[in-house]
Design goal:
The protein has 430 residues and is of the alpha/beta class. The chain has 19 helices and 18 strands. The protein is 42% helix and 16% strand. The strands form six sheets. The protein has a five-stranded parallel beta sheet, sandwiched between helices. Strands 9-12-15-8-16 form a five-stranded parallel beta sheet. The structure holds adenosine-5'-triphosphate and magnesium ion.
Length: 430
């Protein structure tokens, strides 16, 4: 069934009224519209789609400007050359005048909401997440740069990957640059690569990360924490889509879409002079803000379900089927400073701890149980209290050692065999 939603549409035409009549007749609701013929538009990212009349003067430049921000549908009198040119310049589609209801309907069908529950592994049905999904879909339809902001653990990398997977670039590489992991001394060699013989030890020509991403997407993670040198180096590449390898003599051209993520307030760091304003504006063409988990608590149950399914297979001795209502309540009352990552961690840990097919409050970390009711944690026997404490210590050592048993034993100051016995005793799966 064809389900129509409301759209923010920008119509640029002398005949905008006719276009609106068509939208009206096929049941498209306009949340916001503009038929502005002005040369410049502000806040273009707040629109979902633009209809651009290419029978008007200067349409080429307008199209080039618009397509940076949103999908553009060109329309005009039958003229094959112009139609082809509009597509070459980046229009998503061309429609012939007079516009036909069925064709306009087909265009909007491409922009319909897909089922809300999941988009490329992202869970959440809250209104807030719906907005995030809209941003993802919109970004996937363009080649514009994207800035993803949000607290740690909110899913910024997940969103960046989703944009890539839904875009035309999906079959090309998605390259992650963990910006803070590259020291300034290695910056150029990592980003741009080097030519054979450019320095002692350069026995071969090495491609840099930017070149690896050619045709695909480059994800700058933690962009808010990079050095001034890093900022200068990438600004040029983002502006010009070209760079020179170390020791190279000519520019290497690349076709890359840039996505950057940060948990910092970049505008603030710009004002403080820490982050380059020109780089900020280059990256912030489409902005996706992922709000913290505490402001979309209705997503928590679906996330819990997903994480139980994901991690329950690690328990070979019991089949974990779910979680008690009381444990869900406890989690709903928590503020999750570490956001979705923290929730996943808590569930993974509870699955390792529990002795029953259902996760109970007792399987949650002590700091959560305190919130719920201090009495409960104190009500067991001394043996239980000691066991629980020991389990907590073991768990945190395993987290620190990333599951490496020898290292965890070292952290705990016990022998590896001793730790293995305890893991068995407490049925902690690693
Ligand atoms: N909405 C979601 N649905 C399912 N899983 C999610 C969701 N959001 C985050 N996650 C999971 O939480 C973990 C953290 O996500 P991710 O690494 O994308 O966060 P981040 O914002 O990049 O964090 P950081 O700022 O610490 O790098 C991942 O395991 C990811 O799969
Ligand atoms: Mg991340």
């Amino acid at each position: 069934m064809f389900y129509l939603k409301s759209f923010n549409i920008l119509v640029i035409s002398d005949e905008a009224k006719k276009v609106y009549d068509i939208f009206d007749s096929i049941g498209i609701t306009l949340r916001k519209s503009s038929s502005s013929k002005k040369q410049t538009f502000s806040n273009l990212s707040s629109y979902d789609i633009a209809f651009l009349d290419i029978d008007a003067e200067g349409w080429e430049n307008r199209l080039i400007e618009l397509k940076q921000h949103l999908p553009v549908i060109a329309f005009g009198k039958p003229d094959i050359n112009k139609a082809v040119k509009s597509m070459k310049l980046g229009a998503r589609d061309f429609l012939q005048k007079p516009l036909k209801n069925t064709e306009v309907k087909e265009i909007f069908a491409q922009f319909q909401d897909k089922p809300k529950i999941e988009i490329e592994g992202i869970i959440g049905t809250s209104r807030i997440m719906e907005n995030v999904y809209c941003g993802i879909r919109k970004a996937a339809l363009t080649d514009s740069n994207v800035l993803i902001t949000g607290e740690s653990g909110t899913g910024k990398e997940l969103v960046a990957r989703a944009i890539h997977k839904l875009s035309d670039r999906k079959n090309k590489p998605f390259v992650v640059i963990n910006c803070t992991a590259i020291p300034d001394t290695l910056l150029e060699s990592e980003l741009f690569g080097f030519e054979k013989g450019s320095f002692t030890g350069a026995n071969y020509t090495k491609k840099g990360l930017i070149e690896w991403a050619d045709g695909g997407t480059l994800f700058f993670d933690e962009i808010g924490d990079v050095s001034p040198l890093f900022q200068t180096k990438i600004l040029r590449v983002i502006q010009e889509s070209e760079f020179i390898r170390i020791g190279g003599t000519s520019y290497v051209k690349v076709d890359v879409r840039f996505i950057a993520a940060t948990n910092r307030d970049l505008l603030k760091t710009c004002k403080e002079g820490i982050f380059r304003e020109d780089l900020f504006y280059r990256l912030n063409v489409i902005h996706i803000e992922i709000p913290p988990l505490r402001s979309r608590k209705e997503d928590i149950p679906a996330l819990i379900d997903t994480f139980i399914k994901k991690h329950s297979l690690k328990r070979k001795d019991i089949q974990i089927r779910g979680i008690t209502d009381e444990a869900i309540d406890t989690l709903m009352n928590y503020s999750f400073p570490g956001n979705v990552r923290e929730l996943e961690n808590i569930i993974e840990r509870a699955i390792a701890f529990t002795n029953s097919p259902e996760i109970t409050v007792k399987d949650l970390p002590a700091y959560l149980q305190k919130n719920q009711s201090a009495k409960k944690t104190l009500s067991g026997t001394l043996r239980e209290a000691v066991d629980n404490f020991e389990k907590e210590l073991i768990w945190s050592a395993l987290q620190k050692s990333r599951g490496n048993i020898s290292k965890a034993a070292e952290i705990l100051g016990i022998h590896r065999q001793q730790l293995q016995r305890k893991l068995k005793q407490y049925k902690i799966a690693t």
